[in-house]
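Quick one, tokens below. Sequence please?
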């Protein structure tokens, strides 16, 4: 789909095909239903305002690049995904979006106004301005391989406004109870646990 304005329709991104969205594609109050992995989506200039983006299979390591999302509700599983742009908000942005019905793990928000983004609740947690927490993370003894994970989370440029992850997954990966992990995470500067 390219060079058009689509309003109020259901857009299906099917498995075993590549869906090209853009250039010059505007989706207004549409429902995007994706059944494909990252290799099946190519964003080439998408503006989506309103509506829903429902990911029916886990989307891993995908950068929502060359796309602008405003007032969109995201549903589904997002692992290691990036929203926004490292350098140029004219290329990619995300504002006033709702992830409260999503499962997120290791997702970054770049050059984004995080006050306008609704995030999922516990067991999810968010580290705002993770680069600012780096010194604390490096100076703290963490159980299991949690030090490696938090090192990766905080080894980012200041353009990364937030990282959202799932404590249940981290606890299972590191052989600790999720409540014990929560107590440890609550010490991290910039952390938000709802």
């Amino acid at each position: 789909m390219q060079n058009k304005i689509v309003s109020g329709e259901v857009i299906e991104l099917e498995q075993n095909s590549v869906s090209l969205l853009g250039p010059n594609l505007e989706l207004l109050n549409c429902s995007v239903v994706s059944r494909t992995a990252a290799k099946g989506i190519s964003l080439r200039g998408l503006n989506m305002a309103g509506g829903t983006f429902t990911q029916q299979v886990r989307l891993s390591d995908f950068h929502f690049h060359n796309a602008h999302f405003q007032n969109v509700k995201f549903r589904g599983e997002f692992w290691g995904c990036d929203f926004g742009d490292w350098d140029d908000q004219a290329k990619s942005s995300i504002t006033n979006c709702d992830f409260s019905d999503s499962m997120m793990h290791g997702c970054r928000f770049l050059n984004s106004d995080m006050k306008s983004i609704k995030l999922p609740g516990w067991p999810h947690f968010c580290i705002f301005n993770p680069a600012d927490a780096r010194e604390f993370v490096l100076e703290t003894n963490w159980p299991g391989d949690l030090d490696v994970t938090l090192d990766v989370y905080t080894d980012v440029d200041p353009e990364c406004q937030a990282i959202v992850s799932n404590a249940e997954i981290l606890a299972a990966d590191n052989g600790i109870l999720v409540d014990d992990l929560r107590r440890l995470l609550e010490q991290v500067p910039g952390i938000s646990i709802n």
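Residues 20 and 42 are 5 Å apart (CA to CA). The helical segments are 134-139, 146-154, 167-174, 178-185.
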